[in-house]
Structures are given as structure tokens and as C-alpha cells.
Amino acid sequence: MMLMEQSQVPLAVLPVAQFKEHLRLGTGFGDDGVQDGVLETYLRAALAAVEARTDKVLIERDFAWTVSAWRDLGAQTLPVAPVSAITALVIVDRLGAETVIDVGKYLLDKDTHRPRIVSSSFVLPSVPVAGQARIEFTAGFGPAWGDLPADLAHAVMLLAAHFYEHRHETAVSAGAMPFGVSALLDRYRNVRLFGGRG
User: Fold this and answer.
1) Of 189, 188, 163, 186, which is closest to residue 176 (Cα–Cα)?
2) Residue 118's CB: how many other CB atoms inside 10 A?
3) Which of 17, 69, 73, 75 could bridge across to 123 with cysteines, CB 3.0–4.6 Å?
4) In this structure, are residues 158 and 194 in contact, taking their beta carbons and an 8 Å threshold?
5) What is the DSSP track for 132-155?
6) 138 forms bridges with which residues in the sheet?
7) Pick from 96, 103, 93: nearest CA to 126
8) Could you please report the per-residue DSSP string of the chain?
9) What pLDDT shows up at residue 189?
10) Largest CA distance in the chain
11) What is the radius of gyration, based on Cα positions, of the chain?
């Protein structure tokens, strides 16, 4: 299984000015924008860390996920949430030939934690030996920063500030995620039961 990000969060969506206010950086100087690149880096790092901890995509973008076999013949749980649309299902044989599956043969079962692609009949299209299925989908709370739930947006700000304030430290601490951030993320974490099945 491999999840590939097909598009990135545009710079225009990142709340760099809001982050400057959060850090209480000075304003009104001729070099106000000198740290914008650094702040963008910490915002992107915090976004990535929060997404990895919660299996939630914060800002909407496109993904392609490949699997070599279905875990359940009638449905397959997707690796991240929330998913707003499945844009393609492609079966690839061992020689690389691709077959695009008709959209009427599957549908998206939306879920806060575990969205699934579900067969509209009995089973999903079979994956050939040494082949794979590629599911292309759009995931995220929305295309703008304001679409995020307030607690997740605040967690990103807190974590980005933590990264910024400790940018010169080289030692790895035992508690890499600050407690305040962890507390905000706990309700979004996906609890996996039965080996992640179902």
C-alpha cells in the first residue's frame, strides 16, 4: 500500500500573517516579510505532524492510494479522512496496463474516521496477480484555512510555534508532541480495533 499526495497546500492558504500574530512578532518594519519563508516551513511541518497523528487531512487536496489486494471484497477503508470524493478507480495489471472502472460500480461511504470505497454490487473489481488497484480521491476539511475545525487550527498554531521556538535544539526529547497539542488532537485520533479491519 502506498499513499501519494497529488497536490500540495497552496502558500496562499497558509495563515502566515495569523501565525506572526500568534508569535507576537513585530510589525511596521521594512523587513516584515523576511521570516515568511521560515514561518511557512514551520506551518507546513505542523500541518504534516497533526495529519500524521490524526489520519485527518486538514486542507483539501488530491491523493492516489495503491493497494495490491482488497482487505474486504465488498469495501476498502481509505487511509485518511475526511474524503469528499473518489475521482477514479483504476486497476493496473502486472505489465502496467490500466483499466479505469466505471463510476457506477462503486461509491463513497463517508465517515468521520474511516471512509470507504464500497462496491455498488457485491464485490469490488478484482485485482490481478502482481497488479494493483489505484484509488484517486479528494480529502480534507475544505480548501481554505477557515474550513478547519477551530481546535485543529489551534493545534497547528501551537505546534508550529513550538517548532519555531525550539528551532535551534538538536536533542530529541521524550515528549515530542506538546501536551496542549496532544489534548486538542485526542478526539480526532482513530482507534483501530480488530487489527484495523471493518
Assistant:
1) 163
2) 15
3) 73
4) no
5) EEEEEEEESSBSSGGGS-HHHHHH
6) 62, 85
7) 93
8) -EEEE-S---GGGS-HHHHHHHHT---SSTTGGGGHHHHHHHHHHHHHHHHHHHTB--B-EEEEEEESS-SBTTEEE-SSB-EEEEEEEEEE-TT--EEEPPGGGEEEE--SS--EEEESSSSPPPPPTT-EEEEEEEESSBSSGGGS-HHHHHHHHHHHHHHHHTTT--SPPS--S-HHHHHHHGGG-----GGG--
9) 82
10) 65
11) 20
Spatial contact of 86 and 136, defined as CB atoms under 8 Å apart: yes
pTM of the model: 0.85
Strand 106-109's sheet: what is its strand order? 75-77, 116-119, 106-109
Q: Give the separation between CA 111 and CA 90, rounded to whole angstroms.
A: 22
pLDDT in tens, 73-109: 999 999 999 999 999 999 999 999 999 999 999 999 9
Extract the C-alpha cell encoding 154. Answer: 489551534
Label residue 28 by pLDDT band (50, 70, 90): low
Indicate if the pLDDT at residue 4 is higher than 80: yes
If you search the block for the grid coordinates 493497494, which residue do you land on?
A: 67
Instruction: Report the distance separating Cα 43 and Cα 177, nearest Å.
Output: 15
Q: Tell me, what's the pLDDT at 177?
A: 82
The predicted-structure confidence for 136-170, as pLDDT tens digits, reads as follows 999 999 999 999 999 999 999 999 999 988 877 76
The three grid cell numbers given for residue 17, joined into one nine-digit string: 500573517
